Amino acid sequence: MPVALVGALMAIAAALVVAIYLLRRTPQTQVVSNIQFWLRAAESARPKWLASFRIPLLALLLSLIVGLLITALAGDPRFGDGARGTTIIVLSAGRTMGARAEGGERRIDRAVVEVRRWVERSTIEGDVAVIRAGMRPSVLVPVTERAGDLELALRDLTVDDGPADLESALAVADELLSEHLGAANASMGRILLVTDTTFEPATRAPTVILPVGTPIDSLGITSFAARRVPTAVGEYAARIEVVNFSSREASLRVSVGDGEVPILDERIVLGPHERRALEAGGFSARRAELHASLEAISIAGSMDGLSADDQAYAVVDALERTRILLVTDGDVYLEAALSSHPGLEVEVLNRAGLASETPASLAHYAALVLDQVGLPEGMAHPSVLAFAPPESADLGGLPLRFRREVRNPRITAMLGSHPALEGVRFDGAHFTRARPMIETPGDQVLLRAGDRALAIARSSPSSRLVAFSFDTEDTDLVRGEAFPLLVHHALRWVADHGEPTPLARRVGSALGSESGLTITDPHGEIIAATMVPTVTESGIWDLGGRRIAFDATEHARALGAGATGGTFAAASLVPPLGMILAALLLFVMLFEWALLHRGRLE
Amino acid sequence: MKILDTQARRLLDRLALMVRPGATSTRQGGHRSPFLASGVEFADHRPYVPGDDFRRIDWRAFAKSGNLVMRQFEEERDARIYVLLDLSGSMGRGATNKGDPTKLDIAKRVAASFAYVGMKQFDRAVVVPFGDGVVGDTRPLRNSADLPEVDRFLEGCIAGGTTSLPDAVREMCGRFPKRGLCVVVSDLMTPKGFPEGIRTLGAFGHELRVVHVHCPEDRTPTFEGELELTDAETGDKVRLRINKKLLEAYGKEIKKHIDACRDATRRAGGRFVDVPLDLTFDKLIRRAFAGDEGKSSKMAGKGAA
Questions:
Q1: pLDDT of residue A276
Q2: What percent of chain B has pLDDT over 70?
Q3: Which of A485, A445, A474 is CA-nearest to residue A336?
Q4: How many other CB atoms are there within 10 angstroms of residue A505's CB atom?
Q5: Which CATH number applies to B6-26+79-299?
Q6: Which residue of B has its CA nearest to A33?
Q7: pTM of the full predicted structure?
Q8: Is residue B256 scored above 90 in pLDDT?
Q9: Is residue A232 part of a domain?
């Protein structure tokens, strides 16, 4: 029932009462000889002490209470202005919310102002909860009726370096409404999404998008990576890509430093929407922690709205030499792939020579790379990388069994999450033949051609094995740039019996280890937990002494503005309680007034 | 239309007014007076003192006793009949239907009756209508031939305004200082003043008779509900929800007031007569002249008061 209809009904009721009163105001006239006798009679007929005081006193008290309540209701500056029911406010805290407008106000600041206003409104006649929609949604304020609860939560509100996961946050909001109102009444609540991005909500409860922010010019680092130079021991190369997201020309200075040592400091001018890549090199046998930044940005007639994408981080691992024994009869691809890695110390042995080795002599090598050969009987090694191992080869207690050879197998699936395949894609790779392996329980199939396993990774507490079922001569994969990377990652996995740690990760991924290593954030503060489910801040983190760069450059993009969307459905058919109460009190007052003047309560 | 028609006069002709000796006047009349002088009714003997009129010496008693004694006779004097007629607004009430007599109509007949009976026995009757004060008066009328003048005077009397019997009594006593029979014809529908006025009349030495003309509306009203009551005298209005309880309280107030007036009348040596509006003229006159109701029933048969 709309509020207007209720108001009309109440007005009709009030008019009815007044009409009754007015009709009663014109009673029949009776001429009497002397009204003094009647007045005396009325005085003497008045109820005795208790009764005579009770009714007027009750009427007086009732009038006072009604008056006070109406005054209290009308005196509330928020009277009738509240949003009723339960409101879940989802506050976007993605990286773009840190963008500043020309006045210097951040989008998150404007959003917080809006949230405060809505919380004030929502707590008048209902309750409210606030969800922070960062890279990982979190409940800032649980469902409450007190606006003051919000202040503490908003005091140190920060934005993440990655995009806001609005979908998950809205799902949490939906779930929160379901739990608070019950699944059947979840649609009685509402969700208010405060964001700077265009988004199509798909929630059960009605959702309104409150946009904040306006389009802002911006420059950002869209890519920053560093790696060691294979051909020069100790050297590393860094590549940085900068994009001008504005439609105006911009000048800036690009700086890349290895700690205190600058390796790039170049001033460039970018045209509208121009993208430019810069490269730099450095030298360090030890671990290098690189920091790229855009400085002295100048956009004609405008400014750089977002500073979060002006920073980027990368780590180059320390140069550590690892002894590898390559057993082959002259596979140049393997030799080249292994020699391209500056940290590897490779010794080559032909297949026949393997028989003269002893377990003690093999133990000097961190890993074995076996090309079409297995280990002699009685010998074993904990870390083996094998290419096209012979049938029934004994790879140190890890026997392999094969299926029949297949021709021209096509890769249909790969286990991309496995460290051995990190950064490697097999989309364009062709294979002429391969002997698929029969997987055993516990094996991880790295490459699969239909139901055939072309590469497996096997791990036991004392040993690790990666076996590829194809020879290097039977694929063009070895001629690609990714092959040395594949060999390197596979070697690193088999040689590292501990948990492998990548040098760089994207913000939003988890950080932690099963062994409970200490985690330190980019500011040097030790994280109490042994696992950070979602790293939301880019920078160089520390995991048990291992430095890991968390990169957010891929999220750099032009700063648009959010758009209004959605509509609030009527939360309830009943008008606001305050209005009902005020109308009821007014009606009671009118009724009492009419009764008093009719003589009922005199 | 005459206030007293032939039938009424015929009835009144059979009635006489008795005035106590103390209230008689100075002229010779038909009422016994407290004075012993030249009369026809022997009263007593007294010793002769020089200067007495020889004609009143009782020679027969002298012959028997040898002492000169004087014969004394009761002196009969006339009386003044003051008829105070209430002309307050409330006197215009009482007619339930158009054409029915009001309290004032009945009061006028009572007043005219007293005046007629007084004039008939050669007393000096004066009709004094009053409201807040004396509104006017007739000249002292001594003859029944003056009845038309009384009719004309009373026909000119109209009810209206408020009542103050004490003020009217003081004004009347100033204008007519002689004592007499004072007949107050009123509905007594003013809560204050009537007992005081009655006491004042008694104090001036008047023989007092209060004729209370009342209608059912005054004594036992029947209207109920929420009404706007209008005062017939002042025009004041008050809204009351009249219920059974209020009617009972009103009845008690009226009875209390009437009892106070009745008590004041008796204390002043007068008579208080209730005259309901619905009485026939015969009964009305008998009751008014006889005194209170109990006596009226006994006196009615004798035809005199």
A1: 92
A2: 86
A3: A485
A4: 17
A5: 3.40.50.410
A6: B90
A7: 0.47
A8: yes
A9: no
